[in-house]
């Protein structure tokens, strides 16, 4: 199915997101013939650029970041004719009528039926303003064509600001016109979680407190904050990764089967998980949440910067670049099963994976069985890189006796020859063009996630005695995070 004709209007078009992700993804949709014939992109920004200058810059972005450019070389010239640019100060309400005229004449020229998608790739301070100015100029009015609004994270800074942002957005656009992007849901392997769980008869009967011991989710990055220090100082790992991406992954692992694979069904189940999270009271935060910050190090002769030495970072900063936490989901399926989440910058490798640790057999019959079962059967869902699924189980060591050893059954997406894995932005942009919000976050889910994270932020703010553990850049975070895990277990270290 192809989307209806429309114009994609990007606020913040001279920024990095447009250059690295949005335009290369739209190009990839184009090369796969997934865009309508009547289509255009109108980039908006304060920088004065002509259409041609904008196209030149975007061409560079396409060449560097598109997933299909290698096989579709030559298609970019034709695609670039669909890109337009209009310079204006989006903070100034009085400039909107002119912008509207410009948009409408482009709409006439391209015959796009007054269908518009407005993409807010701006700093978050603009999120409440732009929708208001659009609405004041009737650019939210669907009587003559669809009007959709895509909002990038962060959706708020804490619970209160998230609620207020949702109110501001919903005052101008209906909830079904608002598309909140969490790019993790656009990842093929994240969607595959639903398929793994709900299309295989063998997993679902075991997917509960009776057979699962604990669940572990790691999202590690091997680079520091780079030149995003200014943004990161106000954010930290909890807001940047946990409140959104990792809570979402946990919800997909934990949710009940939806009635249908359709937006409200799936989104209802996600919200139910978020609403079942056991709150962590402020005074218990140190028991359940560990925060860390990378410090300068030299590993195997390689020097790595500490967070406080990064550009835009306060030399006395207490912002966390690592979080490990334990929490529970108080519902029928998961009662008593700990969930562990860990994320950090400047760790030894880049990997995102979910590990389902199954309970051991009730009795150990075989030699070696006990040691292996300390590890227990594990299902490792590798979100990225090396996307795939790994099942670890015990097998007889060939020869005399009954010795058991741990073996792997391992599937890699890369083994599927000729399969193109679309990027997250590509998938999500296409869905919005099709009017399908299934993979976008709904207001209530965003608020429920903030409700859970808020006491942690408050505890860190109000109790300066809670430690920010230093960890040498390039290591797996503070050692104390191992103590979070109950019993004799530790985290799985994918490449230790
Ligand atoms: C972004 C965060 O949302 O996700 C970044 O702001 C982080 O700090 C990124 O690096 C990770 O995304 P991915 O797709 O590389 O796992």
UniProtKB/TrEMBL annotation:
Q: Name one GO molecular function term.
A: NADP binding
Boundaries of each Glucose-6-phosphate dehydrogenase C-terminal domain copy? Answer: 194-491
Q: Name a Pfam family for this protein.
A: G6PD_N
The active site of this protein is located at 245
Q: Could you state one GO cellular component term attached to this entry?
A: cytosol
Residues that bind substrate, according to the entry?
Answer: 183, 187, 221, 240, 345
Reactions catalysed, as given in the entry: D-glucose 6-phosphate + NADP(+) = 6-phospho-D-glucono-1,5-lactone + NADPH + H(+)
Return the SUPFAM superfamilies for the record.
Answer: Glyceraldehyde-3-phosphate dehydrogenase-like, C-terminal domain, NAD(P)-binding Rossmann-fold domains
Supply the name of the protein: Glucose-6-phosphate 1-dehydrogenase
Q: What is the lineage of its organism?
A: Bacteria, Pseudomonadati, Bacteroidota, Bacteroidia, Marinilabiliales
């Amino acid at each position: 199915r192809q989307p209806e004709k429309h114009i994609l209007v990007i606020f913040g078009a001279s920024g990095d997101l447009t250059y690295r992700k949005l335009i290369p993804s739209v190009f990839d949709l184009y090369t796969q013939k997934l865009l309508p014939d009547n289509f255009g992109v109108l980039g908006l920004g304060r920088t004065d650029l002509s259409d041609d200058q904008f196209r030149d810059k975007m061409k560079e972005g396409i060449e560097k970041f598109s997933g299909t450019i290698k096989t579709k070389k030559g298609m970019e010239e034709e695609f670039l004719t669909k890109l337009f640019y209009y310079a204006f100060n989006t903070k100034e309400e009085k400039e909107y009528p002119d912008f509207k005229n410009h948009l409408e004449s482009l709409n006439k020229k391209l015959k796009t039926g007054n269908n518009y998608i407005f993409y807010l790739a701006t700093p978050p301070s603009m999120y409440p303003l732009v929708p208001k100015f659009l609405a004041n100029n009737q650019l939210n009015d669907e009587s003559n064509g669809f009007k959709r609004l895509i909002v990038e994270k962060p959706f708020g800074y804490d619970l209160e600001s998230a609620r207020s942002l949702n109110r501001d957005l919903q005052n101008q656009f209906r909830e079904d016109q608002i598309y909140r992007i969490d790019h993790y849901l656009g990842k093929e392997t994240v969607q595959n979680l639903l398929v793994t769980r709900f299309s295989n008869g063998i997993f679902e009967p075991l997917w509960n407190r009776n057979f699962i011991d604990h669940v572990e989710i790691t999202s590690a990055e091997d680079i520091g904050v780079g030149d995003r220090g200014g943004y990161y100082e106000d954010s930290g790992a909890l807001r940047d990764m946990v409140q959104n991406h990792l809570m979402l992954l946990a919800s997909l692992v934990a949710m009940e089967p939806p009635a249908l694979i359709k937006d409200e069904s799936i989104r209802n189940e996600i919200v139910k998980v978020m609403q079942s999270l056991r709150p962590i009271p402020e005074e218990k935060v140190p028991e359940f949440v560990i925060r860390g910050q990378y410090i300068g190090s030299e590993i195997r002769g390689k020097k790595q910067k500490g967070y406080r030495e990064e550009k835009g970072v306060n030399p006395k900063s207490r912002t966390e670049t690592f979080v490990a936490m334990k929490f529970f989901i108080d519902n029928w399926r998961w009662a008593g099963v700990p969930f562990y989440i860990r994320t950090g910058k400047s760790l030894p490798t880049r990997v995102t994976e979910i590990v389902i640790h199954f309970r051991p057999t009730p009795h150990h019959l075989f030699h070696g069985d006990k040691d292996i079962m300390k590890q227990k059967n594990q299902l490792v869902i590798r979100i990225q890189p090396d996307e795939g699924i790994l099942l670890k189980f015990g097998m007889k060591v060939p020869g005399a006796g009954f010795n058991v050893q741990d073996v792997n059954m391992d599937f890699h997406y890369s083994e599927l020859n000729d399969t193109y894995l679309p990027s997250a932005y590509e998938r999500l942009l296409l869905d919005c063009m099709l009017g399908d919000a299934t993979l976008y976050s709904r207001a209530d889910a965003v608020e429920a996630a903030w409700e859970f994270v808020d006491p942690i932020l408050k505890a860190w703010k109000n109790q300066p005695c809670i430690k920010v553990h230093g960890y040498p850049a390039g290591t797996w975070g503070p050692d104390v995070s191992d103590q979070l895990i109950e019993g004799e277990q530790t985290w799985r270290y994918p490449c230790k």
